[in-house]
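TL;DR need structure tokens for one chain.
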Amino acid sequence: MNSFSAFTGLECSKTGEQFKPDGLMNLSPCGAPLLARYDMEAAARTLDFRNVADRVHSMWRYHEMLPAPDESAIVTLGEGMTPLLRTPRLEKAFGLSNLFVKDEGLNPTGSFKSRGLSVAITMARHLGAKKIAIPTAGNAGGAAAAYASRAGIEASVFVPEKAPSVHKVECALAGADVTVVRGYIHHCAEIVAHRTPAEDWFELSTFKEPYRAEGKKTMAYELVEQFGGDVPDVILYPTGGGTGLVAMWRAFGELEALGWIGEKRPRMICVQAEGCAPLVQAYENDDEVSALWDNPTTMVSGLRAPKVLADFLCLRTIRESGGTAIAVSDEMMFEAQRKAGDLEGILICPEGGACIAALGVLLERGDIGRDERIVTFNTATGLKYADMVETEVSVIDPLSA
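>> reply
TL;DR here they are.
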């Protein structure tokens, strides 16, 4: 702990066992994700809601609650502080009165993954990593490649064959060694885990690395700042690996401890694809963990996560918050993606479209109210998914002289 960061160490998410932050670590000895801990009293002395707006315009304005030891250690491309957009025409379409989109597509690498990988690469470099490897549906790989290059670290990225082609190109352009795997993201993860000892990689898999979640939690910090010290009633979050869902829920507890908010919390709603919905299935069955989803059929890469390492944390978040879990079809996602563009000019990704698509069903089920303040997350720019979209355009000859 120092004056720049109140970070004190890591804790096993299952046993509570504490670990010093003095070396590279993946899972705890019992195989569970590790979670960062902070000296909240120390952080509260300097991280003041009244003056935070005067700080750097990036997520690193909350540096007391991030693990970097000092400013010089940070690996950054200017991530965070993304727009929170009111959407009046979408409100009208759904009969809502307070609908917002948090547009993570404006991050440096075009997705919310910039946040987590900025912190993960910062700590990897600080703790001595020379080479990293990551299994990815696409966006995390692009961010890992970019931040690794920024840090002078070698990056190996393993991406499923069916991931959008632009994701593979992005990783290569950012300097990574890219391997395409004939399978799903959990197959990529198995390959990375198998090869890591021989290759001397540090593995950055979702929740297998403890610091990506710390970057993701800053989305909650920004929401509170953008709402003037308040929280929304409901958050809809497209959930693959679940890092953002869990990280934001933990962040609201930190924000109360810092004195930024009171006891009120948003209900956290997990949105998945009908063709790959292990968390929705587990939630509906009242299970504490999820089963492997065999043969996922969704085309949407960010939601094609058949097995979630931190499933118990995701399900705990949903239930503690009084939220719910819902699955929508690919067709609904793509329709909502177009609707957001047609009505609001927001180029959302299909995963972001899933949240918009879920609104109508949630209203019908009574899970959200028409007058509640609702935030949906667009996790990436729609431009990254251009090869998945069919467009109708007119072609004409030039005017003759």
